[in-house]
């Protein structure tokens, strides 16, 4: 593997791992009564809607980087023309660089490269608002689920998106799944079930700030926190599992809508990520005060209290510093991921991405955020094997897929981090 490709793979694994761990670390930040001797009175950061806003800010950076690159390419192209006029020999020596810049500047002009699809421009860019809405629902639910479960279980459960995206692609896109892919979906479902069971039977370790092994939400006065406080530890873990799994339904719907749009219109993946970032950012920014007026006023200091969430961020260095780190990790993860897709393949990217689950689990155990659970390892192995079979990386022993059968069912969504 070339050194540049290794750099891209390493960067993708590093930023993807950091994104999940930083989000969990942010959930564990104390924001109120931090010096109270009674851990149950300490309040930790619980603002999934603000975390969703932060995620879209990171995706918006992708669009800024894309257009900055295009502007820089056009500037170099103009500069090269000036050099050609004054020094033809020097200009000829730099033709290859100029060609590279020309190709970079043409990224958003899909009509120059594809004849069977139209470029996504003008009012048609608003079509990306629909997957952004699904992204808002999915990301917010996952952020809530992460409060109630461990980082590794959260990341493993996200593998269930393959199940829903595969089924939705058959129902709404007319895709055909081969027998080995249906078997792999069953394996993934089995792996997700084992991982979820491990989380319920063996709940996460005690989180700093609480002495009863409860997630960060226990000290909250929010509606979800009250529900968690009224149940046992296993029920709270089950609640987190349900939130994460429900989020995968919205994420799968997002992937299917993206694929539908990109089959009809051509849009560079980095631009698609940026457009979703802008639409998601504006929608979430508008939704936060609306939710505050509808729910936050009657449930102060909860998930939808806009003022409380804002002060929790700006008044606590640990929270706003992790917010910046999360935003940057999302932007870099998308850039590294798209580069891996372009350099190797989408299937290779999805395979490599599963490895970060292992790193998240190892680091969480090392930091003492959770304890080693053999049942969780069994579920993870089944989940990974099912994912590899689905992507055609490995062939099941009972049905050998032909080369023509190995197709990617819904690869559009794999280019976007949530």
From TrEMBL:
Membrane topology: Multi-pass membrane protein
SUPFAM superfamilies (alphabetical): Multidrug resistance efflux transporter EmrE
Coarse class of the protein's main subcellular location: membrane
GO CC list: Golgi membrane
GO-annotated molecular function: pyrimidine nucleotide-sugar transmembrane transporter activity
This protein's UniProt keywords: Membrane, Transmembrane, Transmembrane helix
Pfam families: Nuc_sug_transp (PF04142)
Subcellular location: Membrane
Stretches that traverse the bilayer: 53-72, 127-148, 154-173, 180-202, 237-257, 278-298, 318-337, 358-388
The name this protein goes by in its record: Integral membrane protein
